[in-house]
Amino acid sequence: MPSDLSEVKRRQNLELQRKNLELTQLYSDLRESFESMSEVNKKLRVVNEELETRTKAQAEFINIAAHELRTPTQSIIGYCEMLQMFPESRKHYLERLARNADRLYTLISDLLDATRLETGLLNLTNTDFNITDTIRDVVNDIEKKSDILNKNQVRIKPKIKLVLPSHPVVVHADNKRIAQVLYNLLDNAIKFTNSGTINVSVNLDTTNLVKVSVKDAGKGIHPQIRTKLFQKFTTMSDKGIGLGLFISKNIIEAHGGSISGKNNKHAFGATFSFTLPAATTTKE
């Protein structure tokens, strides 16, 4: 009889041990499940925050775009009405119509480019070309279209000085997109310069990088925007929505280059520079 009791106790102990092992394993499984759920929740929170940020950014983008597009559109409608009422002043109104149409086209192009950049849909068509020829073309184009308001409140043509090497400087890039970057930098320089000369220079350094610089004698980079200079909607001007430098940065970086902006040390104004890898056909 005692042996039977011992056997029963032994079996009961074994069963208890088995149950304890099962409970221990169950606890371990539950802990792992809770940890996994906690990790999933963290990831979901991050995704939700990113979605909220993107939604907010998209709403801001749409609001700013709608506001900026409305201004030249209203001007165009207004000048069309004035043209009908006063046909004898058509030259005056046609000039302003052309200016606002050009502004509208630029705004729409910038908005589309910003969208393409953020969705990774900006395509580059790279070829070998002499960047000094592109600079001359952009300068000729911008000199025809742009003017500045001097200290006497008189509109004059900007003074742009080219400091370019006599030999070709060939880069392998998208010519139109590089011209767009040059136009953006020169347009910014003109916006903030009412006297002095804007210098455009090209240098080829020892690491085979072509450096293009646009140096103005304007107000310089405002401390308020210095740290976010190349972000969307960063501007101290009332003549744009702050997409030019954002687009320029992305275009240059897509070519394997870099872009920077800084105030001039011993003079007024600022200098914006970008680099591009030189093509193998470039000669020093």
So how many helices?
5
CATH class call of the largest domain: Alpha Beta
Shape, per Cα inertia axes: elongated
Topology, number of strands:
9
Strand order of the largest sheet: 4-6-7-9-8
Rg from alpha-carbon coordinates: 32 Å
Proper CATH architecture of the largest domain? 2-Layer Sandwich
CATH homology group of the largest domain: Histidine kinase-like ATPase, C-terminal domain
Helix residue percentage = 55-70%
Low-confidence segments, given as residue ranges, are: none
CATH topology of the largest domain: Heat Shock Protein 90
Brief sketch in words of this structure:
By secondary structure, this protein is an alpha+beta fold. It has helices spanning 2-85, 90-119, 131-145, 175-191, 244-254; strands at residues 127-130, 148-149, 155-156, 159-163, 170-173, 197-204, 209-215, 258-263, 270-277.
Notes on the protein architecture:
There is one protein chain. This protein is an alpha+beta fold and 284 residues long. The protein has 5 helices and 9 strands, in the order ααβαββββαββαββ. It folds into 2 domains: 1-122, Helix Hairpins; 127-277, Histidine kinase-like ATPase, C-terminal domain (Heat Shock Protein 90). It has a 5-stranded mixed β-sheet with strand order 4-6-7-9-8. The chain has a two-stranded antiparallel sheet with strand order 1-5. The protein has a two-stranded antiparallel sheet with strand order 2-3. Strand 8 (258-263) and strand 9 form a beta hairpin. Helix 2 packs across helix 5. The longest helix has 84 residues, at 2-85. The mean pLDDT is 84.
